[in-house]
Amino acid sequence: MKKLLAQPASGQRVSVWLLAAALVLYPLVFSDAFYRDVGVTFLLAAISASAWNIVGGYAGQVSVGHSMFFGLGAYTPLLFYTLWGWPPLAGIPVGILLSVGLAVVIGLPTFRLSGHYFSMATIAVAELIRIFVGTWALVGGAIGLQGPAMARGWWDLTFRGDLPYYYIFLAVLALVLAVTFALERRRFGYYLRAIKSSERAARSLGVPVRRVKLQALALSAAFTSAAGSLYGVKTGFIDPDSGFGILVSVQMVIFAALGGAGTLFGPLLGALILVPLQTASNTWFGGGGSGLTFVLYGGIIVLIARFEPGGLFDLWRRLAPHLRRRAHAA
Amino acid sequence: MLLEARDVSKAFGDFRAVAGADLTVEAGEIVGLIGPNGAGKSTFFNCLAGDTLPTTGRILFDGADLTRAAPEAHARAGIGRTFQVPTTFDDMSVLANVMVGAFLRHPHRNDAREHARRIVELTGLRADQPARSLGTPGRKRLEIARVLASGPRLLLLDESLAGLTPGELQAAIALVRRIHQMGVTIVIVEHIMEVIMTLTRRVLVFNQGRVIASGTPEQVVRDEAVIEAYLGRGARRQRE
Amino acid sequence: MVLIQVIVGGLLLGAVYALFSSGLTLIWGMMNFINFAHGEFVMLGMYVALLVVVWLGGGPAAFGLAAAIALFALGVAVYALLIRHVVRGPMLAQILSSFGLALLLRYTAFWIFSANFVSLPQTSLAGTVAVGGIYLPVAQVVAGLVAVTLTIALHLLLTRSTLGSRLLAVAEDRTAAMLMGIRPDRMQALTWGLSAGAAGIAGALLATAYPWSPSVGETFGLLAFVTVALGGFGSVLGSLYAGLIIGLIEAISAYWLGAIYKDIVVYGLFVALLWLRPQGLMGKA
Ligand SMILES: Nc1ncnc2c1ncn2[C@@H]1O[C@H](COP(=O)(O)OP(=O)(O)O)[C@@H](O)[C@H]1O
Ligand SMILES: [Mg+2]
Questions:
Q1: Residue C223 needs a FRET pair 20 to 30 A away by CA distance; which of A142, A312, C11, C278 works?
Q2: To 5 degrees, how large is the angle CA C15–CA C17–CA C18?
Q3: What is the pTM of this model?
């Protein structure tokens, strides 16, 4: 009994189950199309931010161009559908393979250098791809690509309502978090955090730093690509800006950083706060709202960097003991 | 011969921080490395640990040529080192820090944790303490624990005992002895002669990037060249 | 003849790239920090020029100076309020600080000035000159020449003046510089001022010759990355050569392949550099 009470993880475990139950029940309770759409948007944001988190949060290699993987994931299924009528489901693994290949191409040269170099390379490569795709007629140029209008079967992943998408996305989110959780506890997770703290010290202890960083980037790219594919098939439409645009990368970074980069549930928490906010500002301000949203995002990112680089989870960890003490005193 | 470093140099631009240094270490030794600040001791360690590529020279460890190998390859081969300015993983607990070292020879988490626990106990640290909350002496101790967990055959200690109180110093000397008894060969850089005198039987004196004297601690402290290196020319003239 | 005109035009524009890139490389060299908001500094310099012309009716000297001063002040403020607090912190904070600042500045500009392209009203730099049989807009010629002069001046300031040696002392070893009686914080604030000021003037120079919108900040920021990567991190002289080379490459690829492909060529060059010579053509690793 005493042991059970002393177990700090038990409270966390209860919260996780509650969260899971809430996410499963949400679309059933809020069956309105608008709320379901917000839910799907939230899940997608949480998936991609959690994917970013593997390399940007745990390994501390801050990518500001993750849209390159998202875009590859979104484009590939729709491209193969457009060219050869492949079912989008078949294009998803190809997108993942391409993304992993791209991750290696970027990681190999930059991971030998300081982390700034990696960040700079990611944003430049993402922009290169965005411009290139916009000029390439085969992949739809500036107009983009469309998916199947009518489903020929479930493998086309083209559904009428949002509900199937919601549960598919939820399953993928669960997968990303489960994989992250498993890695966090293994040697790989320890190595990632060691690398984030001091590469030099990590190497002196035999950590194969470049290989581990590359593996983290590849894994992160794979999940980000899957998130992009989900976006592509759900929307049934993709263009250079919604696939490869800088704002796609910005969202991943800000969701993860606000909640807590390098924590399991940080990206999810960030998305939980910001997605409703973004939806609200878009509804209130209409189209002009999105510009304002990014003013706000810029401001939030600056404030996080300046005052709380650990994000909200870190803030909570520091404040919780004080609050608890005050509650006891009262 | 466990370690054999021949004619090692390291140049930064025109400046040669290490200028043709030799060092051979037999398995089971504790060798002291002393010399004034800026003599090139840390840079020499960096060369031995693969942290910087030497400009010239060869480094053989247990017969294998490690001259151009990466630091992680040195660690795998069995060369462990601490840093003069401690670089612990500050976001992690003491135990997690030591586990990073332990993972090198214990890939599975439970094995690594068990091994790390034993080492943490041996070094007298507290497993669940956040590394961030340690002071400099604690960090230096944690660095020793961490590298010890990685199972080195040769340990390079760079001023790991500097800045300790007399009480802490005695405990640290005892710890180094324990590590040595566990079969680890040690090269130790230290300014405090008391440490060198009690721990080592053989000392090399570094000055301006090269070995200017070697012998027992008693021999080198009487060596003219050593006195000159430490005290400058004037001192020698005065003594004459 | 057309090709020569393209080449000269490319070099003149490249000189302006060199000027703002030297600001980026300065900060990298001084404090190992990549400023993702540098392109936004250039963009703000353009709008400062516009406001001075529209509101105060100032000429090129006036708006050039105003852009320099305004951006110098902004650079110092950004350093004092933001960068100073993150520069020795975790990598995430370093990257996010200037990345967030870039978004903040870019989208605030969108909000205030809208996404429409604008250009300066007629200035005294209107018209063209004929040099050796080719015709060039006066504004471009002036912009290019001023930019080269200022970049060289910045290089000389860093390498020949006592101020420059103080800056370099801080870059080499903060603590040692402090012992020599130099205040590192002041020197770094000054670096940020100079860097943003260079971007500001470059923006004003570009504004005389080209129309723009708030999104040019992103383009110029990336161009500065490519330039610095080519010229070597931390080298002002390197970014002068690299800026000229990139201006040239851009102009020629736009001429031969079409305007939209020039970006692809330039960013492709960046990716190639990454693989072949990550420390830049003239830089140290
Ligand atoms: N990365 C470096 N670049 C330039 N000079 C260096 C570098 N590292 C060390 N030095 C110089 O090399 C010399 C030797 O330094 P070091 O090896 O730390 O000496 P010690 O450990 O014996 O005090 C010093 O003069 C130091 O300034
Ligand atoms: Mg030293």
A1: A142
A2: 60
A3: 0.91
